[in-house]
Amino acid sequence: MDHFNYRDGVLYGEKVPLTRIAEAFGTPCYVYSKATLARHFRAYTEALGSHPHLICYAVKANSNLAVLGLLARLGAGFDIVSVGELERVLAAGGDPARVVFSGVAKQEAEMARALEVGIKCFNVESRPELERLNAVAGRLGKVAPVSLRVNPDVDAGTHPYISTGLKDNKFGIPVDEALAVYELAASLPHVKVTGLDCHIGSQLTELAPFLDALDRLLVLLERLRERGIEVEHLDLGGGLGVPYRDEHPPAPFDYATALLERLADWEGSERLTLLFEPGRSIAANAGVLLTRVEFLKPGETKNFAIVDAAMNDLIRPALYQAWQAILPVDTRRPRESATYDVVGPVCETGDFLGKERELAIAPGDLLAVRSAGAYGFVMASNYNSRPRPAEVMVDGDEAHLVRRRERLEELWAGEALLPDDQATEGAR
Ligand SMILES: Cc1ncc(COP(=O)(O)O)c(C=O)c1O
Ligand SMILES: N[C@@H](CCCC[NH3+])C(=O)O
């Protein structure tokens, strides 16, 4: 459920017709619903109820300041993977004490900045990273709170590009080695063990892999306890899927209920703070990509609807063959229906937003690509020297521009001509 619905034949974002947004801000344009973001966030906090918890929104899913600011005000923590994401969180008014830092290769300067602002925890993904963190913290006279990201080797049953909890993925410390790395962590002077972390993949549509992972983590926690190592929090990562088409992923409530049941037998579980790092399940269905049909191009074997958004704006279909619904925004005028591949202007055969879609459209019509609030704008590029699109947040009957469309001259700002060519340029 989201806040993008038809009223009298026109698709709205909350109380704003998307036609009005296209007129005011142009296309292509991302549109997010504040109410949907808030509802998705609260679904987690309400599901966990009185159990100690912290929901660390995965900034990578959608890092627009307005999104981060909204979630910060609702009490969210943040899961970051770079100092860039950290600075965004701070710029949006997020609390550094609620930030966890994931990622396989944190640089020294990134660690130093995170220590300086006092983040909650570093999710350490390897032994050398632990040693680097200890050294950086030592130089700054600090003690870094750490949680080891353990790779539990469970098959999340998701797309191979987005599965992260298998032995042959680059992420985390193999569960069998984790004990030794925890012992090392406990012996180092400038790190303090505070948690245990895992993240097994994204767009999971079943509970079983999460519960399998939890079982393996509980075995590890038991072994740590035997060695006198107690953690304050258990971070189960993100990964809960969303309905893009006909998937029926568990709701946060079902997920949390199943986890709490499984945890109930574990001694001291009521004091164990649960952390989650959801990205997609908060942002994906809180956004659409608005695009306009440029041309309809009938072909011998197929028809193309060429639109003004492309793979540089939304890469998920091209990269993962991901399916996202494509809807006409204004259905009030009569149109003939046909089957189209919806493609963009980029010079790549793989530049498509959807294939074989039955659509009743004409040139100039607006289309909305649904479920585009996560891994949409954040993965946009300037390929083909296309400025990145605008981003708009609707809030009731208001629409706020939360990122203006990139300007052409921004595309080459920071570039330079060679000295010889500058001279030629000057002489001309
Ligand atoms: C460490 C980590 N945490 C959280 C997330 C967010 O995942 P999702 O958007 O599937 O909830 C990811 C991305 O998969 C991740 O790598
Ligand atoms: N970007 C991916 C998900 C990767 C998750 C990041 N760990 C997607 O669009 O589905």
From TrEMBL:
<dbReference type="InterPro" id="IPR022653">
    <property type="entry name" value="De-COase2_pyr-phos_BS"/>
</dbReference>
<dbReference type="InterPro" id="IPR022657">
    <property type="entry name" value="De-COase2_CS"/>
</dbReference>
<feature type="binding site">
    <location>
        <position position="280"/>
    </location>
    <ligand>
        <name>substrate</name>
    </ligand>
</feature>
<comment type="pathway">
    <text>Amino-acid biosynthesis; L-lysine biosynthesis via DAP pathway; L-lysine from DL-2,6-diaminopimelate: step 1/1.</text>
</comment>
<dbReference type="InterPro" id="IPR022643">
    <property type="entry name" value="De-COase2_C"/>
</dbReference>
<comment type="function">
    <text>Specifically catalyzes the decarboxylation of meso-diaminopimelate (meso-DAP) to L-lysine.</text>
</comment>
<keyword id="KW-0663">Pyridoxal phosphate</keyword>
<dbReference type="InterPro" id="IPR022644">
    <property type="entry name" value="De-COase2_N"/>
</dbReference>
<feature type="modified residue" description="N6-(pyridoxal phosphate)lysine">
    <location>
        <position position="60"/>
    </location>
</feature>
<feature type="binding site">
    <location>
        <begin position="277"/>
        <end position="280"/>
    </location>
    <ligand>
        <name>pyridoxal 5'-phosphate</name>
    </ligand>
</feature>
<feature type="active site" description="Proton donor">
    <location>
        <position position="347"/>
    </location>
</feature>
<keyword id="KW-0210">Decarboxylase</keyword>
<keyword id="KW-0028">Amino-acid biosynthesis</keyword>
<dbReference type="Pfam" id="PF02784">
    <property type="entry name" value="Orn_Arg_deC_N"/>
</dbReference>
<dbReference type="InterPro" id="IPR009006">
    <property type="entry name" value="Ala_racemase/Decarboxylase_C"/>
</dbReference>
<dbReference type="InterPro" id="IPR029066">
    <property type="entry name" value="PLP-binding_barrel"/>
</dbReference>
<dbReference type="GO" id="GO:0009089">
    <property type="term" value="P:lysine biosynthetic process via diaminopimelate"/>
</dbReference>
<feature type="domain" description="Orn/DAP/Arg decarboxylase 2 N-terminal">
    <location>
        <begin position="35"/>
        <end position="284"/>
    </location>
</feature>
<comment type="similarity">
    <text>Belongs to the Orn/Lys/Arg decarboxylase class-II family. LysA subfamily.</text>
</comment>
<dbReference type="GO" id="GO:0030170">
    <property type="term" value="F:pyridoxal phosphate binding"/>
</dbReference>
<feature type="binding site">
    <location>
        <position position="316"/>
    </location>
    <ligand>
        <name>substrate</name>
    </ligand>
</feature>
<dbReference type="InterPro" id="IPR002986">
    <property type="entry name" value="DAP_deCOOHase_LysA"/>
</dbReference>
<feature type="binding site">
    <location>
        <position position="348"/>
    </location>
    <ligand>
        <name>substrate</name>
    </ligand>
</feature>
<dbReference type="InterPro" id="IPR000183">
    <property type="entry name" value="Orn/DAP/Arg_de-COase"/>
</dbReference>
<dbReference type="GO" id="GO:0008836">
    <property type="term" value="F:diaminopimelate decarboxylase activity"/>
</dbReference>
<feature type="binding site">
    <location>
        <position position="239"/>
    </location>
    <ligand>
        <name>pyridoxal 5'-phosphate</name>
    </ligand>
</feature>
<feature type="domain" description="Orn/DAP/Arg decarboxylase 2 C-terminal">
    <location>
        <begin position="29"/>
        <end position="373"/>
    </location>
</feature>
<feature type="binding site">
    <location>
        <position position="320"/>
    </location>
    <ligand>
        <name>substrate</name>
    </ligand>
</feature>
<comment type="subunit">
    <text>Homodimer.</text>
</comment>
<dbReference type="Pfam" id="PF00278">
    <property type="entry name" value="Orn_DAP_Arg_deC"/>
</dbReference>
<keyword id="KW-0457">Lysine biosynthesis</keyword>
<feature type="binding site">
    <location>
        <position position="375"/>
    </location>
    <ligand>
        <name>substrate</name>
    </ligand>
</feature>
<feature type="binding site">
    <location>
        <position position="375"/>
    </location>
    <ligand>
        <name>pyridoxal 5'-phosphate</name>
    </ligand>
</feature>
<keyword id="KW-0456">Lyase</keyword>
<protein>
    <recommendedName>
        <fullName>Diaminopimelate decarboxylase</fullName>
        <ecNumber>4.1.1.20</ecNumber>
    </recommendedName>
</protein>
